[in-house]
Amino acid sequence: MRPECFKFCRRGGMPRSLVVIGAGGFAREYQAHWASSGRSDYAIAGFVVTGRTAPDNANRAAPFLGSIDEQQIAADAFAIGIGNAQIRARVGGDLRTRFPAAAFPSLIHPRAQFDESRNRLGVGSVICPGAIATTNVLIGDFVLVNLSATIGHDVTVGDGCVINPAANISGAVSIGSETLVGVGAVILEGRRVGSRCVIGAGAVVTADVPDGVTVVGVPARPIRSVANGSG
Ligand SMILES: CC(C)(COP(=O)(O)OP(=O)(O)OC[C@H]1O[C@@H](n2cnc3c(N)ncnc32)[C@H](O)[C@@H]1OP(=O)(O)O)[C@@H](O)C(=O)NCCC(=O)NCCS
Question: Which end of the chain has fewer CB atoms < 10 Å from its terminal CB, N or C?
Fold first, then answer.
């Protein structure tokens, strides 16, 4: 069957088209954050899913366009509306390969505190309302810093990480790529957290966490580990 083609182009002063990857809860939150940000450079044309994501049944403020693997989707830009760290990073990589000319705009919500003259933010990343990054914070590509999370001075956060709501990351922490920091977790100053780790909700990280390790509790203790953090 010939794939349908959805094509969105910029005409005159019209905003460029932005397609959101994902059609679940965080994708809808992303749309709400975009709408309340007042950004007018792109307009959300719709939501799509990939083989790594599935739609939910909720009402969306923009149309559901189907699977990006089955439809030919042409957009000016893509945003990743996915809350899973490893899937964010992998979908970001897939999209860059498949759509080399597309943009991956980052969103810093106006109710967040993230001064780009003091901090650095990669492409396709989202700083949600209430989140704060202080100074000399380096955030990679396709990172999600969710509602009211705080990130102190001199922190690095690798590609694809997800920092869930109200997590507190103290100064000089380093976090590898594709790591999830659970809601309300605390990482004490100077600790090193590896790649593809999971910091459980409410955990207090008092010691370094090697690649691929899941920790929970206060103080945080490992409950599982994936060889080389590559699982
Ligand atoms: C850490 C986490 C990923 C583990 O999930 P899981 O692999 O499904 O683990 P399980 O639920 O099977 O729990 C395994 C054990 O760890 C304990 N545990 C799980 N999460 C815990 C947490 N956050 N704090 C303390 N203990 C926890 C469980 O009670 C269970 O203990 P038991 O074996 O003694 O019964 C998950 O619980 C978590 O905290 N995720 C963060 C989610 C989040 O931030 N959500 C917000 C979205 S906006």
Answer: N
